[in-house]
Model the fold of this input.
Amino acid sequence: MAERKNTEFDRAGGYAAPKGGIAVMREGTSRLRSLPIVLPGDEMPAHEVADAADKPYFTASEPDTRLYLGDCRDVLARLPDRGKVDLIFADPPFNWEVPYEGWKDGMPRDAYERFTYDWLDACIECLAPHGALWVNIPDDTAAEVVMHLKRRGLAMINWCVWHFRFGQCRDSSFIASKVHALYFVKDAKQRRWNPDAVLEPSDRASIYGDPRTMAKESNKGMRVPMDVWYGPYWGRIQGNNGERRHRHHNQIPEVYLERVILSCSNEGDLVLDPFCGSGTTATVARAWNRRAVTIEFSAGNAESAWERITEVGMVRKGASQGVSTAIAPKRRSLEVESVSDSSPAGRRRGPQATRSRGSR
Ligand SMILES: C[S@@+](CC[C@H](N)C(=O)[O-])C[C@H]1O[C@@H](n2cnc3c(N)ncnc32)[C@H](O)[C@@H]1O
Done:
């Protein structure tokens, strides 16, 4: 397929966004709906929905927050919010034999793929027409998730990477230091998108002192984050990390959920997480005044997560916003060294010098 070049120079400094490439990708994806694509997990029988509690295990109000106990494939099939969910974030078990309480994390590969397609389909049924689905998934299943969502007709907006730098040491291959954060929507034209809520200082401002960034009409010195996510507070939650909930495995950092929730939902929206774990999604959603529904298989995990969601709360609110992720030292200062900071604290302070938080 021929690449169409975008010749609209619509960015400061005379640059054009590569709209042609994205349009070609979306056209190609729409064809997948009608092709008979068979993935290995398709050979297994689909999950037969079993009885599940249709009442939440825990509820809280202001904003409405609910935790359901059970297998998410069963709970999602009966959820009263089907078709009305604005944003889903899913961080499933990776089938890496993690000793989750109650859940067996070591299925034969084809059964795991079938499990994956079943919960993905159940999530799609729950999404509102403008809804977004984010999936946190490692290298070994990312391709299958992408193919399944494309053949179901969802549009990929971003394939982000969560990059971490601690705790994966090995010498038999390159060290694993990422998980994929896949961002899909039902309808690219209707999706929620709030870039101003997640801005960070640009490299032009932080490193190069390029005055063109201060010539922009708004958000001077700031940019939407790139699609590789790292920085202070973005590490894996381990050791004595202040966010850590000790009984849980694979807890995701609050900054990750904060970026997803602020950019892809509005206040009052409904955010769903089918794999609650320690409750990171509902904790962050509640802190930012979103309604939340979450599902957990293990009663013990659910109790602990609920304590976090309703009593401990978010401990790093605003930490994902307005922080430079520059990896090179500053080469030149801006003459007027001030960039806007969109974090809540920044909005109170007004324009500030470029900040960069120290590492933990
Ligand atoms: C990777 S962890 C989620 C971690 C979470 N994102 C956090 O930040 O704490 C997966 C969680 O899903 C739960 N789980 C596994 N299979 C499930 C299922 N079929 N339905 C609901 N929960 C499930 C596990 O018990 C575990 O707590």
Remarks:
- Confidence is low (pLDDT under 50) at residues 345-360.
- Residues 109-126 form the longest helix (18 residues).
